[in-house]
Amino acid sequence: MDIAKRGLRAKDLITTGIFTLLFFVVVTIFAMLFTAIPLLMPFISCADAIVGGVIFLYLATKVRKFGAITIMSSLVGLVMCLAGHFWPCLIFGIVFGLLADFLCSRGEYKTFGWNAAGYAAMILGLALDGYSPMLFFDEAFRQSRLDMGMSEEIIDSLLATIHGPLIIAAFAGAVVCSVIGALIGKVLLKKHFEKAGIL
Amino acid sequence: MRRPMVKVTAATFHYGETHEQCLRNVSLHIKEGECVLLCGESGCGKTTITRLVNGLIPHFYEGEFSGRVTVADREVATTMPDALASMVGSVFQNPRSQFFNLDTTGEIAFGCENLGLPPADIRKRVQETADALAIERLLDRDIFALSGGEKQLIALASAYALSPDLFVFDEPSSNLDWTAVGKLAKLMLRLKQAGKTLLIAEHRLYWLSELIDRVVYLKAGRIEGDWQAEEFLALSESKRMGLGLRVVNPDALRPSALSTKALTTKALRPDALCPATLSSPSAKPPQETRPCLRVFGLSAHYRRGKPVLQDISFEASFGEAVALLGGNGAGKTTLARTLCGLHRKSSGEITLNGTRLSTKARAGPFYLVMQESGYQLFTDSVENELLLSKNKRSRPPCENVEAILKSLSLTDLRDRHPMSLSGGQRQRTAIGTAMAHDAQVLIFDEPTSGLDYGNMRRVVAVIERLRAEGKTIFIITHDYELLLAACTRALILEDGSITSDFPLTEANRDKIKEMFS
Amino acid sequence: MVRFDPRVKLLVLVLINVVIFVSPDLQTEWLCMGIIAVLLMLMGCWRQLWYGLLIYAGMMGALYLCALADNFFTAFISMTIICFRKIMPTVFFASGLMATTTVGDLVSAMQKLHIPKVIIIPFTVTLRFFPTAKEEFAAIRDAARLRGLRFSMERTLVPMMLRCANIAEELSAASVTRGIESANKRTSLRELRLGLPDFGLAAVFFALSVLAVMGGVPALYAPPYG
User: Fold this and answer.
1) Subunits with at least 3 CB pairs below 8 A relative to chain C?
2) For the whole model, what pTM was predicted?
3) Domain that holds residue B299
4) Among residues B140, B161, B182, which one ends one of the domains?
5) What pLDDT, on the 0 to 100 scale, is given for residue B285?
6) Contact A136 C21 (CB under 8 A)
7) How many domains, chain B?
C-alpha cells in the first residue's frame, strides 16, 4: 500500500469505514420506514439526502483526499446490493461515487459549493438505486400476485401509479433535498465540529 | 552497563494549528530495562512524550516538531510505523476503542498478521503470549463479552505478540477496577523481569510503587523533576500535593467526609447553589438522620432472565455521600441505571421524600453522571450545557449558572465546545449539568477516572457542596483517594446483593482497605 | 458443525442474490430458503435459523391473509411485505455468515480475492463497527432520556458523530502502532484452504443458480418449449 502522505492512510480508511456505517444506518432506517408505503419508495433518497448531508460533508472535509467519497458511495452500493437490492446499486454506487469525489476535489474538499455538488451526485446515485427495484419488482409482484389469484386490473392500476410523474418528482426532490442536506450539514459542522477543533 | 533504549533530545512540539507548545525542549534518556513513570498534571505533556516514542508523532499526529528521538538507536522520524511496531509496543487508555477485531485471538494476532509473519510463527507467538500473560482462558472469546480489565489484557497481549523490547503505556489503569489493576501490575512486573523497558504515563501512582525505577515529572511541557524511585516515594505528602500528584502511599489516607459538617447552617447561606431546593414545600429543613430515599425489594434482570440485582433494600438520607463498591459484574452500574429509571426491566419500590416513584418518573429527581462524559454533552458550549439542564426544569430559574461555573473553575471555558476540552474539564462540565439539573439524588459513575490530583480535589469540593445543599449522592468508584475524601458511607455489592453497609469512619477503614488490596 | 471457507460463503451470498433476482416465482424462493436453512444448521447458527424462519413464516402468513381480501389497500400492504420478503434469503444467510466469520478471516478472504487494501480496510471496519455503533447509540439515548431531551438530529446524530470521530482516531492510532500501514503482504493466523464441504456448497448453489436461470422450480415439471 502506498504510504506516501498524500495517499489514503489508515486513519482516512478507518474514518471512511466508520462514517460509511453511519450513513448506511441512516439509509437503512429510511428504506425500512418508506418501504412500508410503496408510493414513497422513490423518495427514500430524499430523506437520506437531508439527514446524511452532515455525514458526507464531515468525511469530505476531514479526509480531504481523493478516494474517500468514492469508497463510501461504493460501499453503500455494495452492501445494499449484497442485502438484496440487486446489481445496479453497486454500479451506480461506484460511478456516482467517482463523480461525487471528482466534483468535491474541484473545490479541494473545502469549498461548500463543490462539496454540495458532489453530494448531489452521490444522492442521485442513491435515488437510482431506489428506482431500480421498481423495474424488477414489477415482474416479481405481478407473478406472485397472479400466483395467489389477484386480478390483473388492480395490479395494473397500482403499477401505473408508480411509474411516470412520480419518478421525475423523486429525482428532482433528491437534488433539492441534497442541497438542503448539505446546508444543514454545513451549519452543524460549523457549530459543533469546527468549534470542537475536530475539523 | 545498560545501553540507552530511548533518547529524546531537545524535543519541542505543538499539535496542528495551535501555537501552544505542548512540549518545550524536553530531553530524556531511558536505559534498557528501566521502568520509568511519567507523571504530572493534566495537559503536562506526558501523553505527548509517549507518542514521540511509539512514532505516532510524526507519523500519525500532525504538528510542528523539532528535536530528535531515537529508539534503540533508530531515528523515529525516519522509521516507518510498522518497523517501530516490532520495537515499541503500545497500550492505550481506553480499552473499548483499541480493537480492530471482534474476537480475542484474532486481535492478539493482528500485529503479526499486518507485518506478514509466517502463519506458523504467528500461531506460536499467540500461544507464547497467552502463556506469558496467563490469559489462556481469554482466547477465542468475543471482545464484547470481556470486562474492561480483560480487554486491557488483550490489548497488552496484542502488543506483546510482536515481541518488542520497549512498552509504552498511556494511562492504562484509567478505566480499570481494583482487581484488574492488580493483574496489570503483576504482568508489568513480569515484563520488567524479562528485561523489557517500560514507559508509563499515569495519574494513579500507588499501584506502580513497587514496579518503577525512576519518576519523571512534567509541568507545562517541561521536565521539572527526575527522581529515582526511592527518592520519589520518600517525598512528603505536602510536596507531592504541591506537585499536583495523586497519593503514593494509600495507608497515609484517612476518611474525612463524615467529619465535615454537611448541613445545618451551610444550607441556608445566601450563595448556596440553589435556594429553590430548600424553599420548595417538599423539602422541609433537612436533618441528616431522616431518610429521604427508600429502596425496597429492588430487582433487575436482563433480557435472558438472568438476574442482575436481587432484592436490594436500603435507605439514604439528605446529605449523605454513599460509595457503591464491588467488583465487576456486581451490579453497581445496573443499580445506578435502575435508580434513574433507565433500566426498564426491574421491580421493587423506590420512594423519594415520601412519594413512590415509577420508572418513568425517576429521571427528574434522579440524575446520573456517566463515566464517559462524551455521551452526555449535547450542545456547543459549556454555558449552553448548563442552560440546557436548567431549561428543562419548570422551576423558576435561579441565577446559579454563574455560581456553578465558578465552583467548577469553568468560567474561562464557558464558550468552549465541550468536545474541545480535556478529559478533566469535560468531566467537570458533566458534573455542572448535574448541578444545574437540580435533582435530589445524584449518582456519579467513576467521576475521577483519569483525573489528576487537582481535578480530583475539585470533584471532592463539589460533592461537599452538594451534600451541604441536602442532596443525596451515590458514587461508583475505584478511586481510593476519592472514596476516603468524599464518601460518608459504603455499600458493597456482590452478585447483585448488598453484602456490607457501613459508615466510613476511622474504625471501618480496614474493611475498605481489604477490598482495595 | 461444518466450517466453510469465507470465500465460498461470499460466493454463496452473491449467488443467492442471483437466484432471487432471476427467478421471480415463489417456489424457487422456498427452495432457496430451505437450502439456506439446512446450511445454517450445518454451520451451527441456531439462533439465526429460528429467527429467520419465524420472520419468513410471518411474512408468508401475512401475504396469504392479504390475498384473501383482495382490494387496493391490501395490495399496498402486500407490496411492502414482498419488498421485504425478497431480501429475506440474503439477509437470512448474511446473519449466519456474520456469526461464523471473524474479521481476520474476512480480511484474508478478500485478500485472496485480490481486493486492494484500500477497499478491505473500510469494508471490514464498516461491518465490524456495527455492534460498537449500537452500544454508543444506546448510551447517547440513555443520556438524552436522563436529561429530558427530545429526539432530534442535533441531539442524536451529532453526538454520535462526535463519538465516532473520537473512536476513529483512537482505533487508527492503535492500529498504526501495530503495523496496519505496513507495505508487507499481510498473512493470517488461520490459513484459508478450500476443502470438500466448500466444493460441495458451491456446487449446490451453482446448481440452484442454473435452475433459476432456466426458469426456476416450475421449469422442473413444465419445461418451457422452444
Assistant:
1) A, B
2) 0.91
3) 257-375+436-516
4) B161
5) 39
6) yes
7) 2
